[in-house]
Specification:
CATH topology of the largest domain: TIM Barrel
Shape: elongated
Number of helices: 17
Helix content: 10-25%
Structural class: alpha+beta
Number of strands: 34
CATH class of the largest domain: Alpha Beta
Distance between the termini: 91 Å
Length: 734
């Protein structure tokens, strides 16, 4: 093919070429097809030699800017060669030519990506170490369809975008370049020249590792050299239906769970956290750890929710392999790992996704759809197939590369509604004139269908605060396809109720009973999360009314109610020992409290015991999501502010009865309904002295009285502890 070489050379020198392979590297001459030419652009070189075997040939400098070439007569087949370049500082550099290699990403992979269905695209885009034609190096790929030119930057080219200009692969918008001798640990970025001629330096959206803040470069890194030892856990995960298993989640922010006592500004490494946290979580009886976003993010105060590296573990705590080891050790200790994940929005940081190729690539062009009014962030363009592919593949990436057990998907409500956080006129109705974000709904259904289709033993959890229909219903039934939904209504009603003085609670008992009207419409998780103890909201302990004894008793009763209520559980770190202060992400939890103060140690022991009684009794978790697992015994004793209910396992004979007293009044000889005739025994009480309570305890077995009471056909008589809850269980005589 005849080329206008002057124009082609000008485009190379001006760093504006979409395919520098057209002129650089090896080419058979058009005018003499028995000969060939080798060209290289070395803007830092004063001289350049072509080296073939041990023979060196001087290359001609055709342009003063650093374009060198040499004609090879009687040669029309590619051959192995490299360059020996003398730079302006008189140093000599051996350079293996990146422009001698054929494209390495197939047209089919590009096609799948453009149609949104290349679910392993993380194995293609980004930086990947490989061997091409016997030469080791790294292939770099990035999606930037509107870029005028894209280059790889690094120490290996003095961060000069002229040196390693990439080629675009057809109409895919994917740019590629294989650079020999680039190995593990090499920092890099992409330089993008936009259509308006401006230059931007961008981190790799598919980076596997990155520099420690405030630096923002990506780092070449392999994820394929870790030897996992969690096969037993993964096998167990496949065999046991998730909905019918106990789930008590411990929500953790790694940067502030615990810090180095010798240097409180230093965050602990993944190894240090594994050594301290995993035994603690196991001893406390939690089934899962949920990590607030550990994907790379620039600002500690964002807690990870303003993600810049969706495929990258934050470098604050170590390498990707260090995090793999953390997950592996959790699994070996029978602890699942859930990640907070943020497909709802991303920050405007210049090095990250925003206006990636000079256009609104990952986000919407119109700020009424693309900018988040509340957080000052950008919203993904879910209607773009490549953006859907980026996010869906990201979820699969964490499951397949890091063995993650599930995701809590952040801010789903903000994705579902076009008017979320906006005033009239600040949003664009959908094509039907409604406020639902149809593209986002389609994306979520696509996401959940693919994740559960490939990994049915994992969890997709929606943090969704509205009454949107069918969040945890299958997509083919008109739902969104999540496995679980956070019960934000339960959380708000419950905390509102507990904040009231007990003398007024009888007027608000419907705040507690209301949740049972909708408890089985979704697969709910009951959350007491970090959001409830920040920004002036006070700690949970100081949300409770009364003196200190009553505050602790109320908090124990809150946890008792939560653990016996239908739904899985989530508790934020520090709540288990009644942290006094609000959570702050830059300091450690107050671990001195349970070490030095009895009430806090007693609260910690209470939560530990509560988790044990929960896990030991299938009736508290086996039937969480249908009405068969719950029955009121009495919800009408409003004047006493007392509730009682039964929880059932799949075997209805396996049940417990829970009674809760929301006042500090002790009641003796109190009637409580029970489902069956027989003998009941108290198996747990939140008011034990060992937990800091007053010690009201029903130590004796209670034989049922065959008289109806409340909603039950039989009843027993018990002593009711102040601000306390008890669990009664029928004794089966052998």
């Amino acid at each position: 093919m005849s080329l206008d070489l002057k124009t082609e050379f000008d485009r190379i020198i001006d760093s504006e070429h979409h395919d520098p392979f057209r002129v650089l590297g090896f080419h058979v001459l058009d005018q003499d097809t028995t000969s060939s030419v080798v060209r290289t652009f070395q803007p830092h070189a004063t001289a350049c030699l072509l080296v073939v075997n041990d023979e060196k040939k001087v290359m001609y400098k055709t342009r003063k800017e650093g374009l060198f070439e040499i004609v090879i007569p009687d040669c029309n087949e590619p051959f192995a060669y490299h360059f020996e370049a003398t730079f302006y500082d008189e140093t000599v550099h051996i350079i293996k030519d990146p422009y001698r290699f054929m494209p390495l990403m197939s047209e089919y992979d590009c096609y799948l990506f453009n149609t949104g269905t290349n679910y392993e695209i993380y194995n293609k885009l980004g930086a990947h170490q490989l061997t091409a034609e016997g030469i080791k190096g790294t292939v770099f790929r990035v999606w930037a369809p509107s870029a005028r030119r894209v280059s790889v930057l690094g120490n290996f080219n003095y961060w000069d975008g002229r040196v390693h200009q990439m080629r675009v692969l057809g109409k895919s918008g994917v740019w590629e370049l294989f650079i020999p001798d680039i190995a593990q640990g090499e920092p890099y970025k992409f330089e993008i020249k936009t259509q308006n001629m401006s230059l931007m330096e961008k981190a790799d959206p598919f980076q596997f590792h990155g520099e420690v803040r405030p630096k923002t470069a990506s780092i070449v890194w392999s994820l394929d050299d870790y030897n996992w030892a969690d096969a037993k856990w993964l096998d167990k995960r496949k065999k046991h239906p998730q909905l019918e298993r106990p789930m008590a989640i411990y929500e953790v922010h790694l940067g502030s769970w615990r810090r180095d006592p010798a240097d409180p500004t230093r965050m602990l490494s993944f190894q240090e956290l594994a050594a301290a946290m995993i035994p603690y979580v196991k001893e406390m009886g939690f089934t899962h750890i949920e990590l607030m976003p550990i994907m790379e993010h620039p600002l500690d105060e964002s807690w990870g929710y303003q993600t810049t590296g969706y495929y990258s573990v934050t470098s604050r705590h170590g390498t990707p392999q260090d995090f793999m080891n953390f997950v592996d050790l959790c699994h070996q200790n029978d602890i699942g790992v859930i990640l907070d994940w943020v497909p709802s929005h991303f920050p405007t940081d210049g090095h990250a996704l925003s206006y990636f190729d000079g256009t609104a690539l990952y986000e919407h062009q119109d700020p009424r759809q693309g900018a988040h009014p509340e957080w000052g962030t950008l919203i993904f363009n879910y209607g773009r197939k490549e953006v859907q592919n980026f996010l869906i593949a990201n979820a699969l990436f964490w499951i397949e590369k890091f063995h993650i057990d599930g995701f809590r998907v952040d801010a789903v409500a903000s994705m579902l509604y076009l008017d979320y956080g906006r005033q009239d006129g600040e949003w664009i109705p959908n094509c039907y004139g409604g406020k639902e974000n149809i593209d986002a709904i389609d994306f979520l259904r696509h996401l959940n269908s693919i994740v559960y289709g490939k990994h049915p033993d994992t969890m997709m959890i929606a943090e969704e605060s509205t009454s949107f229909f069918g969040v945890s219903k299958p997509a083919d039934m008109g739902g969104l396809g999540f496995g679980y939904k956070w019960n934000m209504g339960w959380m708000n009603d419950t905390l509102g109720y507990f904040s009231k003085d007990p003398i007024y609670r009888k007027y608000h008992q419907n705040a507690l009973t209301f949740s049972l009207l909708y408890a089985f419409t979704e697969n709910f998780i009951l959350p007491l999360s970090h959001d409830e103890v920040v920004h002036g909201k006070q700690s949970l302990l100081f949300k409770m009314p009364g003196d200190m004894w009553q505050k602790f008793a109320n908090l124990r009763l809150l946890y008792f109610y939560m653990w016996t209520h239908p739904g899985k559980k989530l508790l934020f770190m520090g709540m288990e020992f009644a942290q006094i202060s609000e959570w702050y992400c830059k300091v450690s939890l107050d671990w001195h409290l349970p070490e030095q103060m009895a009430q806090h140690k007693q609260m910690q022991d209470f939560v530990k015991s509560l988790n044990k009684i929960y896990r030991d009794n299938p009736s508290l978790w086996e039937v969480d999501f249908v009405g068969d697992g719950f029955a009121w015994m009495d919800f009408k004793d409003v004047d006493s502010s007392i509730l009682s209910y039964a929880r059932y396992s799949k075997d209805k004979k396996e049940h417990v009865v829970c009674l809760l007293n929301f006042t500090p009044q002790v009641m003796n000889d109190y009637r409580v309904g029970v489902p069956e005739a027989g003998i009941y025994q108290e198996i747990f009480c939140s008011d034990l002295k060992e937990f800091g309570g007053s010690g009201v305890w029903n130590g004796k077995e209670q034989k049922t009285i065959p008289e109806p009471f409340g909603e039950a056909a039989n009843h027993i008589r018990v002593s009711v502890p102040p601000l306390g809850g008890i669990i009664l269980k029928k004794i089966v005589k052998k």
